Amino acid sequence: MIERLPSILLSLFAAFCAAIASFAISAAYAEHRAAEIDAAATSLAENAAPSIMYLAAARAELRHTQALLSDLVNNAVLGRPLDHHELDLARDNLSRSLDAYLVLPVYPGELKQWQTVVQELGKLDLDTDRVLWLVANGHPREAIKLMDDALRADFDATSEAVMASIELNARHVRRMAIEIAANRVRSRRIALALNTASVAFALLACAAAAVQIRRNVRLLWRQGVLLERRADELEQFAGRVAHDVLGPLGAVALALDLAQRRCSEGEPARTSIERGRRAILRVKRITDGLLEFARAGASPEPSARAEVRAVIDDLMVELVPVAVELGAELRVEPFAPCAVAASPGVLTSILANLIRNALKYLGDAATCRVVVRVLDARDAVRIEVEDTGPGIAPAVEQLVFEPHVRAQSARVPGLGLGLATVKRLTEAHGGRVGLHTVVGEGSVFWFELPKASAEAARAADVDSGASA
Q: Comparing C-alpha atoms, which of 14, 66, 390, 434 is closest to residue 209?
C-alpha cells in the first residue's frame, strides 16, 4: 500500500491537472472565438451596414438630382421661372452621403471600386455644370440634347458604380454572417468536446481520490484497531506488572516493618532496614507512575466529580512531611469551595505529580517554597503549583510535558513520566496544562479542568446518601 502511494498520488495529480487544463483551454478557446464573433459583429454594425446605408442614400439622391435637372431644363424650354434651390440641395445631400461613406474603413477590393465611382462622378459633375451653363445662357435646346445624350449615360454609369459598391459591401456582410454562424457552430462543438473531456478528467480524479480516501480510511481503521489493541494490551500489562511487583513488595515491606519493631533503638540493622523501606516506597512510586501513564488515555465518566478541597487536604497530609524532610515549605492559599469534572483519583494523581515535581526540583534555592492556589476560570477550575526552584531552561521548556524528560537537579529518582501523565490525564478530561517559568526565580505549573456539572453534583449526593 505504501509503495503504491506515490503512483496513486501521481495519477490523481495528473487527472486534476488534465481537468484544469481542459477547462482552461475550453475557456481560452471560447474567449478567442467570442472575440472573433464580436469583431465580425462590430464590423457589420459599424462598417458594412452604414456603408450600404450611405451608398443607398447617395444612389437615391443621384436619381433625385437627375429628375430635378430634367425638370429645370424643361422649364427653361417652356420659358418658366428657374429655381436652382432644390437641385443644389439634392447635390449637397449626394456629397454628404458620399463623404460619410468615405470616413468608414474599407474592405478588400472596395478602394478599387470607389475609384470607378469617383471617375463616373467626375464626368457627371462636368456634364451637369455644362447643362446648367447652357440653361443660364439661353440655350435650352442644346441643354436638352446634352441631357438626352451624354448626361443620361453619366447618371446611369454613376448609379451602376454606386450599386457595385453596395453589392461589394453586401457580399462582405454575407461572408461575415456565414463566418459568425460557422464560428458559433465550431466553437460550440469544440467547447462541448473540451468540457466533456474536462468532466471526464474531473470524474477520473474524483474516482482516484475516492479510491485513495477509501484505502486511507481502511488503513487508518486498521491502525486504529491495532493501536487500540496495543493500548488494551499495554494497560493489561501495566496492571499485571503493578500487581506482580507490588504484591511481593507488600510482603517485603511488612517483613521490614516487623523487623524494625523488633530492633531496638541504635542498632546498626535498624538503619539498613529503614533504607530498605525507603527503597521499596520508591519502587512503589515508580510502579504507580507507570500504571497511571499507561491508563492516562481513558475517557472520563460523565458523572465524574471531585471536590478540590477534599483532595488537596488529603494530599497535604501525605506531602507536608515530605516537604519538611526536604527542608521546604508547602502551603495552600485560601480558596472558595469548588469541584471539577474528574474523579478524585484523577485529580489526586495530577496534583500529586505536580507537587512532587515542584518539591523534587527545588534544588539549592535560598527559599524553598511550594505554593498551591486554586482560581476560578469561568467554566473551569485553574490550579497552580508555584515553586521557588531554579526555573526551566528555554531549550527544555517546550518538552517538559513529554515522556522521559527530566532535569538533572531532581532529588528523587524517577522515569520522567509525572508531567506527561499530568498532560494526558488533563487533556483526556477536556482540560489543558501550561507552564510559566523564569530561570533563577522559579516556575508555575498550572492545569485547568472543567467544572463539575449540576448532574454530577446530584449524582454525588445520591451516592453519598446511599453510602450513608
A: 14
Contact 355, 430 (CB under 8 A): no
314 vs 14, higher pLDDT = 314
What are the boundaries of each domain within the chain?
5-209, 300-467
Query: H/E element holding 272?
Result: helix 268-294
Highest mean pLDDT among 29-33, 215-219, 420-424: 420-424
* DSSP per residue, 31-67: HHHHHHHHHHHHHIIIIIHHHHHHHHHHHHHHHHHHH
DSSP one-letter code for 367: S
Q: What is the mean pLDDT of residues 450-455?
A: 79
Fold of the CATH domain 300-467: Heat Shock Protein 90 (3.30.565)
In this structure, the number of other CB atoms found within 10 A of the CB of residue 372 comes to 21
Q: Work out the pLDDT band at 2, boundaries 50, 70, 90.
A: very low
Q: Are 154 and 131 in contact (CB under 8 A)?
A: no
Output the DSSP codes for 169-211.
Answer: HHHHHHHHHHHHHHHHHHHHHHHHHHHHHHHHHHHHHHHHHHH
pLDDT tens column, 300-315: 667 788 899 999 998 8
Q: What is the DSSP string of 295-353?
A: TTTPPPPTT--EEHHHHHHHHHHHHHHHHHHTT-EEEE------EESS-HHHHHHHHHH
Average pLDDT of the residues in 234-256: 68
Cell numbers that stand for 95 in this block: 456629397
How far, in Å, CA of 257 to CA of 273, rounded? Answer: 8
The 3-state DSSP class for residue 27 equals helix
As given in the structure block, the three cell numbers for residue 407 are 532535569
CB-based burial label for 367 (10 Å; 0-12, 13-18, 19+): exposed
Cα dihedral sign for 214, 217, 220, 225? negative
Three-state SS sequence of 125-169: HHHHHHHHHHHHCCCHHHHHHHHHHHHHHHHHHHHHHHHHHHHHH
The pLDDT mean for the chain works out to 79
Res 156 pLDDT > 50: yes
pLDDT in tens, 75-132: 888 877 877 888 889 888 888 888 888 888 888 888 888 888 888 888 888 988 898 8
Q: Are 5-209 and 300-467 the same fold in CATH?
A: no
The rounded distance, in Å, linking the Cα atoms of 11 and 5 is: 10
The dotted CATH code for 5-209 is 1.20.120.30
Region 165-184: mean pLDDT is 83
